[in-house]
């Protein structure tokens, strides 16, 4: 065995062992888990705004729209996000009237 063949054989054995180990682990864990299908983005929808009014995709066509999905109990992130959005609206000045905000 020459000087280049031995390291190649060792590397091939190591790589093969890793592959066999990985396959055995996947087999023991029940295989690869099903991955969720990609989200269907777009299409018709219906939401209820903060005033109880129904909002659909038709309300938003042709208008810049800002939507915030908050939580009923969100003491940290929600107030900060709402403050940042109100600052953006304030920085728009009169142009803020053109934005649908929900």
Q: Domain count, please report it.
A: 2
Give the strand order, joined by hyphens, for the main sheet. Answer: 1-2
- CA gyration radius, whole angstroms: 28 Å
Oligomer: single chain
Series of secondary-structure elements, N-terminal to C-terminal? HEEHEHE
Layout of strands and helices, then pairs:
Blueprint: H1 5-28, E1 46-48, E2 54-56, H2 57-60, E3 65-66, H3 77-92, E4 100-101
Parallel strand pairs: 3-4
Antiparallel strand pairs: 1-2
What key phrases describe this protein's structure?
3 helices, 2 domains, 10% strand, two-stranded parallel sheet, 102 residues, mainly alpha, elongated, single chain
General description of the model:
This protein is mainly alpha-helical and 102 residues long. The chain has two domains: 1-33; 46-101, no CATH class. The chain is built from three helices and four strands, in the order H-E-E-H-E-H-E. It has a two-stranded antiparallel ribbon with strand order 1-2. The longest helix has 24 residues, at 5-28. It starts with a helix and ends with a strand.
What's a quick, concise take on this entry?
By secondary structure, the chain is mainly alpha-helical. The chain contains three helices and four strands.
């Amino acid at each position: 065995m020459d000087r280049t063949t031995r390291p190649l054989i060792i590397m091939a054995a190591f790589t093969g062992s890793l592959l066999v180990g990985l396959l055995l682990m996947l087999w023991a864990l029940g295989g690869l888990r099903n991955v969720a299908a990609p989200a269907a983005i777009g299409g018709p929808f219906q939401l209820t705004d903060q005033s109880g009014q129904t909002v659909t995709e038709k309300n938003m066509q042709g208008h810049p729209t800002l939507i915030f999905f908050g939580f009923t109990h969100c003491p940290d992130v929600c107030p900060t996000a709402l403050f940042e959005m109100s600052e953006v609206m304030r920085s728009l000045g009169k142009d803020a009237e053109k934005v649908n905000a929900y």
